[in-house]
Specification:
With 443 residues, the protein is mostly helical. The protein has a domain at 3-243 and 392-429. Helix content is 70%, strand content 8%. It is built from 14 helices and eight strands. The chain has helices spanning 3-18, 22-42, 45-78, 81-115, 122-151, 168-173, 175-205, 210-245, 247-254, 288-294, 315-341, 350-359, 361-376, 398-429; strands at 156-159, 162-165, 260-261, 265-272, 277-285, 300-301, 381-383, 387-388. The protein has a two-stranded antiparallel ribbon with strand order 1-2. The chain has a two-stranded antiparallel ribbon with strand order 3-6. Strands 4-5 form a two-stranded antiparallel sheet. Helix 8 packs antiparallel against helix 11 (315-341). It is globular and about 65 Å long. The protein starts with a helix and ends in a 14-residue tail after the last helix.
Length: 443
């Protein structure tokens, strides 16, 4: 394997692994804040137990997410120096804002929240977890703005072989960036909701801390249904903008080869990139793709044949990832409806209680599929339309990348095993009894 392929594999490994932890941080932080707010308002001991229990799981996840995020960014200088040189003026400014503002705020107040249980007033302690939640999602905003610029570059000029910043506001406020951020955090909030639902259901089924977990189940059920509905509508907007910003990616998602009007959707299909056709098409819904893209079933949709082969993404993985993401997303929606329906009588729903813990991995998979579509669908461009991926890689010996790739796989496998063991272990134990004096200093 050459340097390009090895570098792409290494970046994929580190990105996928890092993104196991980011969505839970984004979603669970707000839910922990809601639990603590309920405790501060009611002074109910079970809400405090819920806050500390899920807060501990949040902290375990947060710690590993920070470590994996740092190693991910190092690769821009080691494996992708051509890219770093080309976009450093733009990408560097966005990452600098993320690190010096959002991440600094997030990490500082995580420490204040963790160590402040017996030192801060209840109200101020509650404020700190809301700051952590807001800062975590703000940090995601700057990262996603940077990624959105790679997907749809704006606010730049090409000068001396580099992309230089010309309009910071255009980069931050462009519609593509806003939609990408909202869609990504929506998926993260759904993941956080199913994480709470699954663990709560596991304990309720075993009649363990039922008072605590019926409370968290009710919150999680409402939260998850709201954001499942939100994500379905918002996800459509993300697909819609691709018709103008990245029509080739949209064509790959739908396996649409010919530019035509009245484009149908086939519920069952199999792309054949070599022969530029679908080898299997069944269950046709007339005009549905045209309608979803343009709100008119008779409008024209661009096809892959309009683009030279060398400028097309790998169609099969993009197509299958999109179908799997949508299918699993619909599944999660109906399960969230079931959980919402049973939220006040969950102890009388044994099948749902048994199902929900097994559902926890599904939103993780859906989030990973979304990133697969976004990143593989952008190929062969590392910056869409202006820099090909092959031109961004560092000129280093393949053996160097192979060694670092192997090291990443081994270290990440160990780190992941430790993290998931800790999450599983502490989640099974449930809230631990307090052995010390009251947790807050009252103002």
């Amino acid at each position: 394997m050459d340097t390009l392929l090895l570098s792409r594999l290494q970046f994929a490994v580190t990105t996928y692994f890092h993104f196991l932890f980011v969505p839970l941080t984004l979603g669970l932080s707000f839910l922990v804040a809601i639990f603590e707010t309920a405790h501060v308002r009611t002074r109910d001991e079970e809400w405090r137990q819920a806050t500390k229990f899920f807060g501990k799981l949040f902290l375990i996840n947060f710690a590993v997410g920070v470590v994996t995020g740092i190693t991910l960014e190092f690769q821009f200088g080691t494996n992708w120096s051509g890219y770093a040189k080309f976009v450093g003026d733009i990408f560097g400014s966005l990452l600098a804002v993320e690190a010096t503002v959002a991440f600094f705020l997030e990490s500082t107040f995580v420490a204040v929240w963790f160590f402040g249980w017996k030192k801060l007033s209840p109200a101020f302690h509650c404020v700190t977890i809301w700051i952590v939640a807001a800062a975590s999602n703000l940090s995601a905003f700057w990262i996603l703005v940077a990624n959105a610029w790679m997907q749809h570059p704006v606010g730049y000029v090409l000068r001396h072989g580099r992309a230089e910043l010309s309009d910071f506001q255009a980069i931050v406020t462009q519609k593509f960036a806003v939609l990408e951020f909202v869609h990504t955090v929506g998926g993260a909030w759904i993941l956080g909701g199913f994480f709470v639902l699954g663990i709560s259901a596991w304990h309720i089924a075993r009649e363990s801390h039922v008072g605590v977990f019926t409370r968290t189940f009710r919150v999680g059920a409402v939260w998850t249904l709201v954001f499942c509905i939100f994500e379905m509508f918002q996800g459509h907007l993300n697909a819609e903008i691709l018709a103008t910003a990245q029509p080739t990616k949209l064509a790959a998602m739908e396996a649409q080869w010919e530019t035509s009007k009245d484009v149908p959707m086939y519920l069952v299909a199999w792309p054949d990139a070599e022969h530029e056709r679908n080898s299997l098409q069944a269950l046709r819904i007339p005009g549905l793709v045209s309608f979803l893209v343009h709100y008119n079933p008779h409008d024209q949709v661009a096809g892959l044949k309009d683009v030279p082969r060398e400028n097309r993404p790998p169609v099969l993985p993009v197509f299958l990832s999109f179908r799997a993401m949508v299918g699993l997303g619909i599944l999660l929606f109906w399960i969230s409806v079931w959980a919402f329906w049973k939220r006040n009588s969950i102890q009388d729903a044994p099948r749902l209680l048994r199902l929900l813990p097994w559902i926890i991995p599904v939103p993780y998979l859906v989030n990973q599929l979304g990133w697969t579509i976004a990143e593989i669908g952008r190929q062969p461009w590392i910056v869409y339309g202006i820099m090909r991926t092959e031109n961004g890689v560092s000129r280093v010996d393949p053996s160097q990348v192979a060694v670092s790739l192997g090291a990443f796989v081994l270290v990440y496998a160990l780190l992941g095993a430790v993290d998931f063991y800790l999450l599983w272990s502490f989640a099974r134990k449930g809230p631990l009894p307090e052995t010390s004096t009251p947790h807050h200093r009252h103002a």
